[in-house]
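We emphasize that the prediction below concerns an isolated chain of 210 residues; any contacts that depend on oligomerization or on bound cofactors are therefore not represented. The input was used exactly as deposited, without trimming of termini.
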Amino acid sequence: MIIKALSRFAMALAAAALLVPVAKADSLFVGSQAGYCCFNVDLLQVDSTHMQVTVSLTGGAQYFVNSGGGNHPGFAFNLAGDPAVSVTSINAPWTLSSFSPNPVNSNGPSLGTFDYYITNPGNGANAHNPGPLVFTLFNASGINYSDFVANSAGYYFAADIMNADGKTGMSGISNPPTSTSPVPEPSSLALLGTGIIGAAGFVRRKLLHS
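Result of the prediction step, given as a token string:
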């Protein structure tokens, strides 16, 4: 009887686990450049044709800027094959017109040429903003994490930023992405816990009547 009860408990637990939806995993690029330092890029797959991009300043970087003096793309990135993409949403103070699908070479320092870039609003450090920068890319032919690639100089992304000392310049990310493991959503964890408790009660009742 005990073996049968435990077997039914295991089946109930497995059934509860099947009810738990798994959240989509992000792909995270972590900046580690010296100097003006760092920013992170988090990619979230919205659906097969949309990718949400979140750019956050870290490690002493305080503002996105447009420092001028050559090509200083506010935020630049690469996609394999240079497909035709558009931006369907972007947060203020950036605007949809800030996005350019044309190649740009970064100067000061040179981080190579990037396929696409977003211009920071305003000129000079006085037009700085702390971010984050959040926008959604659309590609009718489909887009996924592996489409984001490094350029010939080895950089996936670049950003024009200011540090706490007021120094401005380009920073880049040459680190490959890390994917976070899919995890159950909080509400799903509660559901799983309820299933386990219910299954445990079932086994207890069986043991008491055996």
